[in-house]
Amino acid sequence: MRPIQMVDTKTQYHKIKSDVDKEVLDVLESSAFINGKPVQDFAANLSAYLGVKHTIPCANGTDALQIAMMALGFQPGDEVITPSFTYIATTEVIALLKLTPVFVEVDPKTFCIDPTALEKAITPKTKAIVPVHLYGHAAPMEEIMAIAKKYDLFVIEDNAQAIGCDYTFSDGTKKKTGTIGHIGATSFYPSKNLGAFGDGGAIFTNDDELAVKLKMIANHGQSKRYYHDVVGCNSRLDTIQAAILDIKLRHLDEYTIARRAAADFYDKSFAGNPKIKTPYRAPFSHHVFHQYTMILEGVDRDGLNQFLAEHKIPSMIYYPVPGHKQKMFEQFGTASQVMPVTDWLTGRVISLPMHTELDEEQLKFITNKVLEYVNK
User: Fold this and answer.
1) Which CATH superfamily is domain 252-374 in?
2) Could you tell me if 313 and 369 are in contact, meaning their C-beta atoms sit under 8 angstroms apart?
3) pLDDT tens by residue, 310-341
């Protein structure tokens, strides 16, 4: 059996090695390392895939969120609502821009922001909502957009974990996550469903005026070279990464199929076990399984984590400390918030290996070892 990886980027690379190597060598030969043609080609192809008017590549997913908030003109003290149960980048940029993060609960089944909790958290200072499509499952965007419209709020989708996910509206229409809100942001970190061989990110919008602002801010705030209209930053996707991502974009749907097949194997193996809650799949979300995250009941989660490690099976706990309890947010007094769902999840979730290269032998070994520990 091949060694089990949490994310097997090496095997994935070898399947497309000839295409990747050629494109990288072409970039080296052209020496257009910054803003070369592959950057524009990738942006256009990604826009076409997602069905969105504008894709603005940038340096990483955290920058994508920061640039989105800068473009919307928020002022210090403005409130931005986001789930506490997410990776820190989502909320870090809010504080970085001297805005006020407002943490709310998530749905215990989908792990995504709870619309009821969201609406209760809105105040006159609220300017935006940042829903996170966590682990590859879509947030309830139809409800979120209705709330945003009711209170005249912006919506910035954190789509770092769900690129390629289809959201189905109540009337049957579909849109890709990241294209439903006013702005979408994503990451191309190597372990993502669409991952670069380094850092990278992108911002999406269907708003022409916002697209102009986003591009300016990502490029030192300049409308043309050496003419800087607004305060911006330097956030670029380099040409080599764009060339690699353009190749991998062609395979994204097959990558999603492979991830969903691995998730199906896990689901069937754990079906009916009262101590394991397998990931929920809401009818509106075509889950793309960035992570396969289970909820354990009556099981020593940390003990299972250690047991799997002893058998050379990697597993991860995403996320052991929720945002509202992070030390960096002490100034906002969030630690005193009562968030029973979030606290319950942080003590019970565990993620198993999930990537495009898992084979049946590996999956059988993983599931057998999980059940061995859970059922002891």
Assistant:
1) Aspartate Aminotransferase, domain 1 (3.90.1150.10)
2) yes
3) 999 999 999 999 999 999 999 999 988 999 99
> What residues does each domain of the chain span?
9-249, 252-374
Number of other CB atoms surrounding residue 11 within 10 Å: 14
The residue written with tokens 């009562």 in the block is 338
Name the pLDDT band for 181 (thresholds 50, 70, 90): very high
For helices 88-96 and 61-71, what crossing angle results, to 10°?
40
Rounded Cα–Cα distance for residues 156 and 138 (Å): 13
Q: In what order do the strands lie in the sheet with 126-129?
A: 54-58, 201-205, 183-187, 154-158, 126-129, 79-83, 100-104
For 40-137, where are the E strands, in sequence order?
A: 54-58, 79-83, 100-104, 126-129
User: Is residue 262 within 8 Å of residue 364, measured between CB atoms?
Assistant: no
Q: Is the C-alpha dihedral spanning 231, 198, 39, 187 positive or negative?
A: negative
- CATH, range 9-249: 3.40.640.10
Torsion-angle region of residue 143: left (phi > 0), alpha (psi -120 to 50) or beta?
alpha
Q: Locate tokens 């958290």: which residue? A: 121
Q: Which residues are CB-contacts of 252 (< 8 A; sequence separation ≥ 6)?
A: 49, 163, 164, 193, 194
β-bridge partners, 352 = 292
Is the model's pTM score more than 0.85?
yes
The answer to whether 374 and 275 have CB atoms below 8 angstroms apart is yes
Q: Which of 92, 87, 102 is nearest to 293 (CA)?
A: 87
Kindly write down the DSSP assignment for every residue of 244-311, as one continuous string.
Answer: HHHHHHTTHHHHHHHHHHHHHHHHHHHTT-TTEEPPP--TTB----SSEEEEESSS-HHHHHHHHHHT
